[in-house]
Amino acid sequence: MRHKTQNISRFILLLLGVWLLTAVTTHAQTDDPATIPPPQSVTIAGTLQPQLGCSGEWNTTCQESQLQYDAEDDLWIATFELAAGEYEYKAALNGSWADNYGLNAEYYGPNIPLNVPEDGPVTFWYDHKTRWVSDSVNSLIANVPGSFQDEIGCPGDWQSDCLRSLLQDPNGDGVYTFITALIPAGEYEAKVALNQSWDENYGAGGEQDGPNIPFSVAENQAVIFTYDPASNLLTIETSDDVPDGLITDLDQLSGPTGGGMPPPAAPMPDLVVIPGTIQSVLGCPGDWQPDCENTALVFDEADQVWTAVFDVPAGDYEYKVALNGSWSVNFGQNAERDGANIPLTLAEDTAVTYLFDHNTGWAADSVNNLIANVPGDFQDEIGCPGDWQPDCLRSWLQDPDGDGNYIFR
Length: 409
What we know:
Blueprint: H1 8-22, E1 25-27, E2 42-46, E3 68-70, E4 75-82, E5 85-93, E6 100-101, E7 112-116, E8 120-127, E9 132-135, E10 142-143, E11 166-167, E12 176-180, E13 186-190, E14 192-194, E15 201-202, E16 213-217, E17 222-228, E18 233-239, E19 272-273, E20 298-300, E21 305-312, E22 315-319, E23 321-323, E24 330-331, E25 342-346, E26 350-357, E27 362-365, E28 372-373, E29 396-397, E30 405-407
Parallel strand pairs: 1-30
Antiparallel strand pairs: 2-5, 3-4, 4-8, 5-6, 5-7, 8-9, 10-11, 10-14, 12-17, 13-16, 14-15, 17-18, 19-23, 20-21, 21-26, 22-25, 23-24, 26-27, 28-29
């Protein structure tokens, strides 16, 4: 499978076609990386996953190939044991293909090729600040330890293993750069260290174990560190022009959960039940029973949605969604946690489809809501078994706020 940037015009036309079919208003997903909040999870999805214990390749939800957020380094990182061979992979955010990065930090970019020469550990990382995903085979783990590191959030200075000063090569040109606007005015020194240790380091003139490289910073300047592995030269420059989006205050840096993105509406539950006044007619001992499995939904791995169909007699009902057999976490109308009951009126006996997405907290049914989807030639890129699959709800259009506009992001 090859993941690539979708043609926006084609996608808009596709959405227009869905609008004509469903008579609802839709909004295309954004492809502006600047609008993507820091993720709650990052998965290395690709052909290497079965070796790591995943159920298949290109599985965005497999925890065995997820990176871990390192708060000290402000970086998503993990090391996996891989057999020698040729692989491909990408970084998928938040357990889906909705936001993913490939080669050269490109949004919906090409798969990243990985040729592992021999069995052994391979370190993978993803930096949400630059969108760079890479590995220790394709890229150097090159760092800039120095007398400035405590100013950028490291536990101290001259820390060869603190990757807040990681030199990066997002565009793949072989030259590694680290830019920061966090260093106060003053006099400093730095070097380059490889593989998070002092075993291999380069100083002034590209000399191995060479002298520290001095540099000066004025008020409100950005500092640009550039490392060329061909010569092992580290160049340090300053600029009064601070690039847009560059962090200028430590308080802006990601926290221990990977940043400022609100978490999913709820962690993946073990049990999802539809409690409400429908339960007594569906075999439960009474109504509003959050642990009655007669009205439990089933998680559809292919669609990444909780769903079930129940035959409900004509009548007026109310319901909610309760997680893990209790009322501790529940969702009601408009995807609100502890929200209002959801009304359901049936003029005749009806087979009602219920759906719940734990990422958005939206509980929906086939009477109150349209089950609208976006089939197209992009669906295999987001985890569907193929393209043009009208029954694959990974491209489910949702209306969590109840405004009548259905959106797929």
